[in-house]
Amino acid sequence: MSKQRTRTEVKTAIDVSETAERKRGRPQAAQGTDLKLALLRSAIDLFAERGFDGVSLSNVAEKAGADKGLSRYYFGSKEALWIAAMEHLADCFASDLNKALVVNTATQTEALKALIRAFITASARWPQVSRVIVHDGAKHSDRSDFLQRHLVVPFYTALKDLITGAKSEGTLPNVSDRTIFFMITHGGSFPMALPILTNAIEGGDIRSSDALEHHSEAIIELLFSKA
């Protein structure tokens, strides 16, 4: 069988300096770049923790250690800050997903398994993705539409092709692609998004490398063992 190659668009994550000195007023260029990224990181954490309605521009600035007016100075409105934060989160998640992904595989089945492992690794690094989806994906809104376009649909498209290929190879049961997708994404990511609940059950700290590896292999075993 000819080798198959999975392709995922690579995006570069932006490292955020958390130690940059903060000053009042309009920042200089270099300091301003660091501060803007710190505001984005703070916004991601707060929107994931509290949801859109539970966060103010002042909350974001305070968490970043910045003057309260700088969130509005850089982003204009809470809506614009949310969009910028989610774009940054999507870029970071995609970058870490690609770093963990082994792209050369012999079969569609092995490519899908590699993508599942990479997804779980990236989800542990960015549990905010699942938390934001819970807060803003439960009702129709501009924010849920944004999450669908930028986070859900791109990954579903990548997975669907591999799911179809694995079915044709006889390694996956012939059940709904959507069901398989949510088994991978929700089953794969939510234990890390809810570590307090997860770790209340025996099995070790879900954030540890050993627990993550066991979690990945368990998901794969459940999906492929009954084909």
Task: Describe it.
This is Transcriptional regulator, TetR family. The chain has helices spanning 29-50, 57-64, 70-75, 78-100, 108-125, 128-136, 142-168, 177-193, 195-199, 209-224, and strands spanning 4-5, 104-105. The protein is mainly α. It has a two-stranded antiparallel sheet with strand order 1-2. α1 packs across α2 (57-64).
Brief description of this entry?
This is Transcriptional regulator, TetR family. The protein has 2 domains: 29-76, Homeodomain-like (Arc Repressor Mutant, subunit A), CATH 1.10.10; 86-224, Tetracycline Repressor, domain 2 (Orthogonal Bundle).
SSE arrangement:
Blueprint: E1 4-5, H1 29-50, H2 57-64, H3 70-75, H4 78-100, E2 104-105, H5 108-125, H6 128-136, H7 142-168, H8 177-193, H9 195-199, H10 209-224
Antiparallel strand pairs: 1-2
Helix pairs in contact: 1-2, 1-4, 1-6, 4-5, 4-7, 5-7, 5-8, 5-10, 6-8, 8-10
Biased composition (Basic and acidic residues): 1-12
InterPro entries: Homeodomain-like_sf, HTH-type_TetR-like_transc_reg, HTH_TetR, Tet_transcr_reg_TetR-rel_C_sf
Protein name: Transcriptional regulator, TetR family
What letter string, H or E per element, gives the SSE order?
A: EHHHHEHHHHHH
Question: Could you name the CATH homologous superfamily of the largest domain?
Answer: Tetracycline Repressor, domain 2
Global mean pLDDT: 86
- Any idea of the CATH class of the largest domain? Mainly Alpha
Q: Mind describing the biggest β-sheet?
A: 2 strands, antiparallel
Q: What percentage of amino acids are in beta strands?
A: under 5%
Radius of gyration: 19 Å
The helix-and-strand class reads mainly alpha
Low-confidence region ranges: 1-25
The largest sheet has its strands arranged as 1-2
N-to-C span: 20 Å
CATH architecture of the largest domain: Orthogonal Bundle
